[in-house]
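SEQUENCE WITH STRUCTURE:
===
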Amino acid sequence: MAAPGKDEPEKKEGRDARELAGAVDDKAEARKLLADGLYEKCRDRLTTYWSKHPFDFEAIELYRDMLVEIGRTDIAEKFDALLQKRASSLSTPPYKHHQELYDMAYALVDIRQYAIAAMLLKELTRELPEDMEINYELGFALMSLKSYEEAIKHFSVAARKKDDFDPYLNLAICYTLLRNLEAASKAIDIAAPLATNEDEKLEIEHRRIVLKRLKLFTAKKELNNRDWLFILYGTVLLRPTLKIQHLKEEASHVASMLVVLKGFLTGLSIENEGVEYYSLRSKPLSSVLAQLNNIPVDAYRGPDRPENVMLTLSWTTDIIGPHQAFIGNAENRSLFAYALTPDTPLPLVPDIIGCLAEDITMPWEGDKSPKALERLVENILERAYALEASPELIQEYQEAIDYYHDKRDLLVFNNSQIFPNRPEYTAEVPRHGK
């Protein structure tokens, strides 16, 4: 029998060799992906490698080249500033270049590359553990990665600057997402007198409402996506989970969703006089919803339309372009989005969301002739009519009605006088609904 520990050096050497081979493969693959113009895949591969090798300048150069290729020369310049001052040995961490590293990390936060930004900022905190700006940016990157407990440690360092509003606000957010009502409330109380402009004052007001909603769930052990979307934004989520049977056929999925929406609105005695679409991508969805409810459909008419209408979006990325036109909550207009991507920050939150999903292909996407689209709309409408008597869907929208009925006063939907400004959606919903 071998002596204890005898084979450990051999195992370690083998592991190191495999890791080195994998690292070489990562860089080679990233370089190939960059040459092929597959920039997102290149970024993901580089992120995996760079996170483990913070000061491999070849990786930094590759990332810089990718940024140039996608037109982000402004951020690539931050990389150049470090590369021009790099140490003679690639294995020597260039800690003396604090400002260049910070500028690079700050730029990466700006383009939502939080994992890499957090890695660089952590390296900086090894040298400058008490620096408030570095700790704030690291806290923000970690919060965006949903590492709330770790983020709190760094926001607490940043909060030593007593008159700074932002660290206390973000502490309140992190404590809220950890369901620590007492700590969140204290952070908000400290932040409130530091609010110096209207946006900051509105944010404090919004955070107090969030805590008011959160208190309703004190006795509930686990919170799901429906709970969190209500707590954080006062938003309705029709389908907390995507059931497999709903995804078997795209047209049936759309039809069943619109039946649930119609049943929910009827159950809450909400009547619309029309349906609107802003983008042509949402026109088929709007057409089916309008015909299902026997009301007219037309294009978006601007923020001051007098009738009660529902503006529909097939996917929340449609918001990005036109959101300034309807960002305020409107007494006569509600906003329904078929789907929302959980980790994509958006400038506003729809009043009603059909489901959370990373990717759903709508049945009308792609090149289709006007006649083909017309037939598709008719097909979805026929399925919707057939599904209106479905016991499963009746149960589904009745569950939604029961869930939101006693929460109506805290919903943004149909409460524009109470909640005149939508909060910005910053992908706060905790992963797995916890």
